[in-house]
Amino acid sequence: MKKIIFTLLVLLAPVQVWASGGCGQLPHCDAVDIDLSNQASLQNGARLFVNYCLSCHSASFMRYNRLGADLGIDDDKLLDNLMFVADFR
């Protein structure tokens, strides 16, 4: 019985993915235009990621000095605005 249920689940999984479509229930998917040269937007996104996402979604392979260099943030602003640990100095 377990083999039958497992086989049915494996066979029906692609049907579920196909039926849901690429956008879920939306009739039309909007295209995303990402501007990598907009430094203010990238800095805002980094701030939002650090404030809301970093606690659960680790960025363990991202170095803060590389983040600052890529986003055009000097070290003092980076320490004040993005690094919220007690012993970072």
Could you walk me through the main structural features you see in this protein, from its secondary elements to its overall organization?
By secondary structure, this protein is mostly helical. It has a domain at 39-89. Helix content is 55%, strand content 0%. The chain is elongated, with a radius of gyration of 21 Å. The model has no long low-confidence stretch (mean pLDDT 80).
Quickly list its features:
mainly alpha, 4 helices, 89 residues
Please provide a brief summary of the model:
With 89 residues, this protein is mainly α. It is 55% helix and 0% strand.
Uncertain residue ranges: none
What is the count of DSSP helices, taking H or I runs of 4+ residues? 4
Head-to-tail CA distance between termini? 61 Å
Order of helices and strands: HHHH
Helical amount: 55-70%
| Category by helix and strand content | mainly alpha
DSSP strand tally: 0
Oligomer: single chain
Instruction: Please outline the major beta sheet.
Output: none
The radius of gyration is: 21 Å
Q: Please tell me the overall pLDDT.
A: 80
Give the amount of beta strand, in percent.
Answer: under 5%
**Overall body shape:** elongated
